[in-house]
């Protein structure tokens, strides 16, 4: 336990509260896995400069019983670790973190301010925060409740009244907390429920109801913010590979999301991305525009810049190339504002196959000017890309995708050049391959997107290249031959091409490719499109 060695009379300290259920606890994350993700190495080392007071769990609680150095709890990784790293790097002054979280708890019951039931999380939260603030005052600090981070909602999906009233219940929760904690200006950050998990697929309508409630409550509250999290990593489960929790990588990125939201409110924005200072081609030249689209591996969920040094030719890929590049990733969470030189550009030192695709394509054909535009959302499924979408209308990506393609063509025209849509390379949704209803309809749904985009762009012969890695091999989904379905979709259309990509480096996980796999995928695409154009 931290012991005050001196008086802190009048010293300001910002206090942040983290609360919610299992994905706030850090469920299914492992401290031992952190070093697998280079941007986050070292964050589990205890920090004596950040005070931490926690009560985590339900029946068997991990209770710090006072302030301790910020550290992992029970071998799990919570979002507070990366949050503290980024906030202390981006601002000055002391910070302290209070965390109260328990898996499987409800806002409608356990966290209900008016009538808490079950594990009675609301009174526990008040008791813990008040005790922590009082202790800081006893040490001489002048503590301020600076922010409240809330990640909860999955369990309210299963009780109709809780689900239908989630927005109203959340608004009451925020109001009551400000009153009970005597913090009328307390700012709340409400984390999105991740749509990349299995519940984001098989419970799509219920998840959508919770998300609408969260969005409504935060939109109506000027001191509340909805923080997207569906683009972060998710644990790879056994069997078909889908999972319920963020796991290690997701929790690390989860914390980075909260820190970015808080820092933005403090006026601390990330460094500006490098723009392409000069258009690299003659203004009169026709430019081949390649559209890259897809989900987890197109986004590059587990491909890290730091790993490139260990891959042959990887160091060159980490440097900017003279190829114009624009992007919208995570469903628009991370997007370029102008043309950039092609280089790794992911939110978490990540990158996708575009880097190696562009480099290899230029080596093969240096005469043809090319530009690359990438549109991804790793938390989406193929149904989200269809013109009709699903019952979760807020997750519909097609209009944004279509407009992104149009905008990319116009951005080339603004440079005085003439764009030619060379083709769309679409990597089949990884999660769709692991869920029988989505795998069954994958080819049909993709077919509607191909048809509609061609119609909307007035490009009836727009080439589509359907890239597909070996799908999930499990008895629960193997009754659907989705490779044959995709091949049949291409066979019926001379302008649609399909390739099952099998010559990838050995991969440690289902569904997602690591750095070497993502690099190889881009190289394969470059060879493929050149071969196709020669035929």
Description:
- With 535 residues, this protein is α/β, with parallel strands linked by helices.
- It folds into 2 domains: 254 residues, Rossmann fold; 249 residues, SGNH hydrolase (Rossmann fold), CATH 3.40.50.
- It is 34% helix and 19% strand.
- The chain is built from 16 helices and 16 strands.
- Strands 1, 2, 3, 4, 5, 6, 7 and 8 form an 8-stranded mixed β-sheet that branches. Strands 9, 10, 11, 12, 13, 14, 15 and 16 form an 8-stranded mixed β-sheet that branches.
- α2 runs parallel beside α8.
- The longest helix has 22 residues.
- It starts with 11 loop residues before the first strand and ends with a helix.
Shape: globular
Distance between the termini: 71 Å
Segments where pLDDT lies below 50 for 5+ residues? 1-5
How many structural domains in the coordinates?
2
Number of strands: 16
Give the integer mean of the pLDDT values: 96
| Beta-strand fraction estimate | 15-25%
CATH topology of the largest domain: Rossmann fold
Summed up, the helix count is 16
Helical percent range? 25-40%
What's the CATH class label of the largest domain?
A: Alpha Beta
| Class per helix and strand makeup | alpha/beta
CATH superfamily of the largest domain: SGNH hydrolase
- What Rg is obtained from the alpha carbons, in whole angstroms? 24 Å
- Biggest beta-sheet profile: 8 strands, mixed
So, CATH architecture of the largest domain? Answer: 3-Layer(aba) Sandwich
Describe the SSE topology:
Elements: E1 12-20, H1 22-25, E2 47-56, E3 62-63, E4 68-70, H2 80-90, E5 94-101, H3 121-138, E6 142-151, H4 160-164, H5 166-180, E7 188-191, H6 199-202, H7 204-220, E8 224-227, H8 247-265, E9 286-294, H9 296-299, H10 314-317, E10 321-329, E11 334-335, E12 340-342, H11 354-364, E13 370-376, H12 382-385, H13 398-413, E14 418-427, H14 436-457, E15 464-469, H15 482-491, E16 496-501, H16 515-534
Parallel strand pairs: 1-5, 1-6, 2-5, 6-7, 7-8, 9-13, 9-14, 10-13, 14-15, 15-16
Antiparallel strand pairs: 2-3, 2-4, 10-11, 10-12
């Amino acid at each position: 336990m931290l012991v005050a060695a001196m008086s802190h009379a009048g010293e300001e300290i910002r206090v942040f509260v983290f609360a919610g259920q299992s994905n706030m606890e850090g469920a299914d994350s492992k401290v031992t896995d952190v070093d697998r993700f280079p941007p986050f190495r070292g964050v589990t080392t205890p920090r004596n400069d950040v005070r931490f007071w926690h009560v985590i769990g339900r029946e068997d609680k991990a209770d710090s019983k006072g302030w301790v150095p910020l550290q992992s709890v029970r071998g799990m990784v919570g979002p507070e670790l990366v949050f503290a790293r980024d906030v202390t790097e981006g601002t000055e002054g002391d910070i302290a973190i209070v965390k109260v979280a328990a898996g499987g708890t409800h806002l409608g019951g356990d966290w209900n301010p008016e009538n808490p039931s079950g594990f009675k999380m609301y009174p526990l939260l008040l008791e813990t925060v008040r005790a922590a603030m009082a202790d800081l005052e006893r040490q001489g600090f002048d503590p301020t409740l600076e922010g409240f981070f809330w990640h909860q909602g999955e369990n309210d999906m299963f009780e109709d009244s809780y689900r239908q009233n989630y927005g109203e219940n959340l608004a009451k929760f925020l109001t009551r907390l400000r009153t009970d904690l005597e913090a009328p200006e307390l700012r709340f950050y409400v984390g999105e429920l991740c749509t990349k998990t299995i519940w984001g697929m098989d419970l799509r309508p219920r998840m959508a109801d919770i998300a609408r409630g969260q969005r409504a409550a935060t939109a109506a509250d000027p001191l509340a913010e909805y923080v997207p999290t569906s683009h972060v990593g998710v644990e790879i489960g056994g069997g078909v590979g889908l999972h319920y929790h963020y796991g290690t990588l997701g929790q690390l990125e989860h914390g980075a999301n909260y820190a970015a939201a808080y820092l933005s409110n403090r006026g601390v924005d990330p460094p500006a991305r490098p723009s392409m200072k000069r258009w690299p081609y003659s203004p009169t030249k026709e430019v081949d525009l390649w559209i890259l689209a897809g989900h987890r591996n197109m986004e590059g969920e587990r491909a890290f810049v730091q790993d490139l040094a260990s891959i042959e030719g990887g160091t060159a890929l980490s440097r900017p190339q003279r190829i114009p590049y624009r992007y919208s990733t995570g469903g628009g969470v991370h997007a370029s504002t102008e043309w950039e030189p092609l280089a790794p550009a992911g939110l978490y030192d990540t990158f996708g196959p575009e880097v190696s695709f562009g480099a290899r394509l230029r080596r093969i054909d240096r005469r043809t000017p090319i530009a690359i535009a990438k549109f991804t959302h790793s938390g989406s499924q193929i149904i989200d890309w269809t013109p009709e979408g699903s019952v979760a209308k807020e997750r519909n990506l097609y209009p944004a995708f279509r407009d992104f393609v149009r905008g990319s063509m116009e951005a080339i025209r603004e440079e005085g050049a003439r764009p030619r849509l060379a083709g769309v390379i679409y990597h089949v949704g990884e999660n769709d391959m692991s869920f029988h209803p989505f795998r069954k309809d994958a080819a049909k749904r993709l077919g509607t997107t191909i048809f509609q985009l061609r119609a909307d762009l007035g490009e009836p012969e727009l080439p589509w290249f359907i890239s597909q890695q070996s799908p999930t091999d499990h008895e629960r989904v193997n009754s659907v031959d989705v490779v044959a379905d995709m091949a049949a979709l291409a066979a019926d259309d001379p302008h649609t091409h399909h390739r099952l990509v099998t010559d990838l480096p050995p991969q440690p996980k289902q569904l997602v490719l690591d750095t070497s796999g993502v690099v190889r995928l881009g190289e394969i695409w470059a060879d493929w499109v050149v071969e196709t154009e020669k035929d």
